[in-house]
Amino acid sequence: MDDLVDAVVEDDRWTATDLEALAAQACAAALRECGYDPAGFEIGLLACDDGRIAALNADFRDRARPTNVLSWPAQHLVADAPGAVPPGPAADPFEARTHLGDIAIAYDTVAREAAAQGKPVADHCRHLLVHGTLHLLGYDHISEKDALLMEGVERRALATLGVADPY
Description:
Collagenase (Catalytic Domain), 42% helix, four-stranded mixed β-sheet, alpha/beta
């Protein structure tokens, strides 16, 4: 699990959360909840601030404003029907680990949301990293059925980490 998350920390405020260990735990919990062995995967993580994530959001989603988390799946995994589980990622035959994709998370927005919701920054961060990992696995929340499926997986994964139901 130590090699699951390859983190680049651009904003030093993340160091107070022990982000790399927290991210490895959260991403692994999401993978296990979906039936995958975390040892077979790797995820890139950018721990940044609102300015950086706003620029990424503008570049990739045409939304020039900060957000809490963004994800870029390495594979296009789409469920066959609303509310259905997405197909599993294809293993990379040339690598010991399959790269699932990349996640960016913004300290300013995460801290602001955690304060507004009255929860620890670390717990909110765990939730967002589970959420981002599920996006890498093809889960989405566009339709109500997809949102219910994704939220259920999030709740179960977070419970294994001792994090209260975020919904």
